[in-house]
Amino acid sequence: MQPFIGWAGDRTAGAVLVFAREPRAAKPVAFGLLMGWFDVEYTDVRVRRLREHTDWLLTHANPKMLAAGLAHGTDDVPGCSDCCQWHGPLAATGRCACCAQQRQVSAASELRA
């Protein structure tokens, strides 16, 4: 099973995490989750395999469905407290690596000023 991101329209407006063997199996799962949020057509749904942080993403899968090899998904993945995206593990502060680094750079430049 591989992790996929599923969305319709703008990914930043909302996306779901799907676990499937191939994109063809991920799309119907993504559609089922997304149509609960807004009016969406099946042809508008897109899926893309996520190749980074797969171990972390797989921790959000349903263990029984994952073990059985059944395609499934979730719309309840913890996101960054700053950018609201869930593309990777979060630091203890609740921020993704990118936002945490940006905060450090901002804090350092404020100290210099």
What do these coordinates show?
There is one protein chain. This protein is of the alpha+beta class and 113 residues long. Helices cover 35% and strands 18% of the residues. The protein contains four helices and four strands. It has a four-stranded antiparallel β-sheet with strand order 3-1-2-4. The termini are far apart.
Summarize the structure.
This protein is α+β, with helices and mostly antiparallel strands and 113 residues long.
Strand and helix layout:
Blueprint: E1 2-8, E2 16-20, H1 23-34, E3 45-49, H2 54-58, H3 63-68, E4 72-74, H4 97-112
Antiparallel strand pairs: 1-2, 1-3, 2-4
Describe the sheet with the most strands: 4 strands, antiparallel
Rg, alpha carbons: 16 Å
Overall helicity? 25-40%
What is the H/E string?
Answer: EEHEHHEH
Strand content: 15-25%
Widest sheet: strand ordering: 3-1-2-4
Total of helices: 4
Q: Kindly report how far apart the N and C termini lie.
A: 50 Å
Strand tally is 4
Low-confidence stretches: none
Shape: globular
Mean pLDDT metric: 89
Category from helices, strands and their pairing: alpha+beta
Features:
4 helices; alpha+beta; 35% helix; 18% strand; 4 strands; 113 residues
